[in-house]
Amino acid sequence: MSVQESVNRFFKECKRVLRVSKKPNREEYLNFSKVTAIGIAILGVIGFIIALVFQLIGI
């Protein structure tokens, strides 16, 4: 497969993805935002707990 064929194939796949994709409606956007915020909060709590444990151990 030549470089030009692989580039053409890549652009065809990009066009297909853009045709299939759609803009999220308000409900989908809010759900995505909630899940993202919960994930960030969980990671923050885990980081805080790890920092607290290290401070208590004295490392």
UniProtKB/TrEMBL annotation:
UniProt keyword annotation of Protein transport present: yes
GO biological process assignments: intracellular protein transmembrane transport; protein secretion; protein targeting
Compartments where located: Cell membrane; Endomembrane system
A single MF term (Gene Ontology): protein transmembrane transporter activity
Database matches in SUPFAM superfamilies: Preprotein translocase SecE subunit (SSF103456)
Alphabetical keyword list: Cell membrane, Membrane, Protein transport, Translocation, Transmembrane, Transmembrane helix, Transport
Signal peptide from the UniProt entry: none
Taxonomy, superkingdom: Archaea
The keyword Protein transport is assigned to this record: yes
Family indicated by similarity: Belongs to the SecE/SEC61-gamma family.
Description of how the protein assembles with itself and partners: Component of the Sec protein translocase complex. Heterotrimer consisting of SecY (alpha), SecG (beta) and SecE (gamma) subunits. The heterotrimers can form oligomers, although 1 heterotrimer is thought to be able to translocate proteins. Interacts with the ribosome. May interact with SecDF, and other proteins may be involved.
Role noted for this protein: Essential subunit of the Sec protein translocation channel SecYEG. Clamps together the 2 halves of SecY. May contact the channel plug during translocation.
Protein name per its UniProtKB record: Protein translocase subunit SecE
Organism phylogeny: Archaea, Methanobacteriati, Methanobacteriota, Methanomada group, Methanobacteria
Gene (UniProt): secE
